[in-house]
Amino acid sequence: MSPDRPRRVAAIAGVASTVPSLGGIALAVALAPWFAWRANALSDLGVAGDPAVATAFNGGLIVGGIAGVAYAWALWTDAPDRAGRLVAALFAVTTLSMAGVGAFPSDTAAHAPVAVAFFLVLTATLGIDGLRRRETLVGRLLVVSPVVHLGAWWAWLAALDLGDGIAIPELVGALLLAAWVLAWSPVAPLAGRFLGDDP
């Protein structure tokens, strides 16, 4: 196997996972005039009365989550040690959980477990990858990212009292995941382009 193959797979899978997931969220929000960032959860889009809204949201997460499995394979294949393989395994759980959020909308019993798994395992993926690469700039950034992610939840739910919805902290998690997949992971297609540091 060519040593460059995992990174080629990651480049394709990274785009194939982030574009449908974030694009589906954006399209669903655009199609749902009732949606309010301060009053709703993103998952409310998955049970919208308008089938187009629900399809955009759920379909984007399912497609993106499935594409992420190939990205997890690239991480695993490229990993130099057990810690790298742990990050790959955690990301596999993260991306499958994301697909599960789309496959099991919020009016189903399975939704809460897969949604909680997504956000918790995402946090672990970022933090552990940061610790294993803490000698690099991107690693130090990743060590801080779980604080940002959990801090967004704390600020929204406890400190700021800005509304009943959780869409904004959910979006923070989704954007952190996209940034890691595209620019910060060990096989990210844009690695080093913005930070000037080899991840």
Structure, described:
The chain has 199 residues and is mainly α. The chain has one domain (5-184). It is built from six helices and no strands. The protein has helices at 5-31, 51-78, 82-103, 111-132, 137-159, 167-184. It is globular and about 45 Å long. The two termini are 22 Å apart. The model has no long low-confidence stretch (mean pLDDT 90).
Order of helices and strands: HHHHHH
Number of DSSP strands? 0
Tertiary shape: globular
Fraction of helical residues: over 70%
Amino- and carboxy-terminal Cα gap: 22 Å
The number of distinct helices, counting runs of at least 4 residues, comes to: 6
Structural class: mainly alpha
Estimated share of beta-strand residues: under 5%
Provide the gyration radius in Å: 17 Å
The total domain count is 1
- Give a short account of the largest sheet: none
What is the average per-residue confidence, as pLDDT, rounded to a whole number?
A: 90
Low-pLDDT runs: none
